[in-house]
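Quick start: read one record
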Amino acid sequence: MTPVVAGMISGDRSSFYGVGFYSLQDTLWDDKGRHYFNSCTIEGDMDFIFGVGQSLYEVIISCSISVCEAYPGKAIIGFITAQGRMNVDDENGFVFKNCNIHGFGKTYLGTPWRSYARVLFYKTTMSSIIQPLGWQPWNSSVDGGVEFSEYDNMGPGSALSGRVSWLKKLDSSTLMKMTSTEFVARNGESGEVEKYCGRFLMVATGETSDPFVLAMEALSSFPGKVIHSTRFKSGKEFKDEHVFVVGAENSKREKEER
């Protein structure tokens, strides 16, 4: 099988809402930086979410991890994650919160790409495709720095009774920190949570003929003005103002330039 990367994210403070990533091996290269994935679908079969990113995958509508069968007809079982944290002091890791794991065949939740790999599954629904051990070493053994954790998950694949002995237990403060958006908003050097404020929000999502505003957390309480890019006619109203533009490709860049 030849790895085919559907998406590689190396920028810092990147967010994805309602985006689909589809491939087989190495689907999503969550390379580095702080990333937030909301209501996304990621499909693959072997190490298909991998990298050294500091990322939170969660749901408002549905966060789906779809597993295909690795090497059909052969006794090879794939892995969902291959996280690559290299130092115990590094802040990066993958957190899956309120997600849904489904598909066909069999799979493990992950394998450590590097010696201090860190992955947490939290309040996630796991179907029976998850192998009872849950995790597998990269080689023949696992270093003591690996931090794989599971808390409050649901479904037939979530039973902890058959899991590997080296599953990591987290204290309550660490669990709270990792499952909050602060996990991807905190500056690794200063330790401060970075917040960005604006009086206007412009959304450039959907097609011109079918515009829509994504269901984003706290949007209903946003005190400023929210418009879709199809209603944008002139930049005069926003002169010298702080404006967030949410979207991708041509429409987003066009509005930023204007």
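Residues 252-257 have pLDDT under 50 and may be disordered.
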